[in-house]
Write a structure and sequence with these properties.
Blueprint: H1 2-18, H2 23-36, H3 45-60, E1 78-88, H4 93-106, E2 110-117, E3 126-134, H5 138-146, E4 150-160, H6 162-188, H7 192-224, E5 225-234, H8 248-302
Parallel strand pairs: 1-5
Antiparallel strand pairs: 1-4, 2-3, 3-5
Helix pairs in contact: 1-2, 1-3, 1-6, 2-7, 6-7
Amino acid sequence: MKNFAKALVLALLALSLVACSSGGDDAADGGSAGGGVEGGVTEQASADTALAKESGGADQSGSRPDLQGQIPGVGLRIVKTATLRLSVGKGGFEAAVDEARSVASSLGGFVVTSSASQAGHGRLVRGSLVLRVPGRAYEQAVRELRRVGRLERMSDDAQDVSAEFVDLEARRRHLEAVEGQLLTLLDRAKTVPAALAVQAQLNDTQLQLEQVRGRLNFLEDQTTYATIRLTIGERGTIAAPGDGGWGIVEAWKDGAQAFVTVTGKAFVIAAGAAPIVLLLALAWLAARFLRRRIALPWGASRS
């Protein structure tokens, strides 16, 4: 009984150190767990020794159980992103958007989000799309999208996350090994205090494990599919310096529209300020009238 309790205390202490928890608190939990195991079950000394080796023997030797096996190579992990801005001729916006969608679909990708606006022309003339394409087809997708319209601006970025991926994979394997050992100890706990002590440590380990798995899934998605942000607009609606696509008619239309907009805003401001100006004018006239009425008796007495 004493040997079994000591083995359980040692196992809980070692697991708490591996899980990066407070050494003092976890040792207390291990003591409570060891004290709560019933002594009614008679086990031989050989079984106690086997349990000690299973739970804490590897930690006593200074090795970590989850790193006993080597982590398989994950290869090069690159997060690829690109931003393209294209201009098309008048009336070519919708055709350009359809072509961009077809490029993504033909390469095994898809459209995440899309938006479009009329910009006062009564029809859709500009918009943006966020495309996801397989990483292996990233360069081909960029080349084909550049041919959809005239390239106005482009930027791309590649971020190597291989080291982070390897580190997260090692942490996942380690936490899974700790989780398995804690589940074994939880099954062997015979009382409520013992079960609660192991369960608290198990909850913390499982929380860390879920965080690591979530980050791994995110990196897996970002490296499997590249992200391309595409902006398309008819020439004359993007208003880019040096665009060179404006004609005299479009320039007059845009100038007239700007004049109407400025005039309308000025009228709104004037209409809103008119009552205040009127009140100030009335107050000024009243003050002037009162000053004259007060000044007249003084003038008469002097004469």
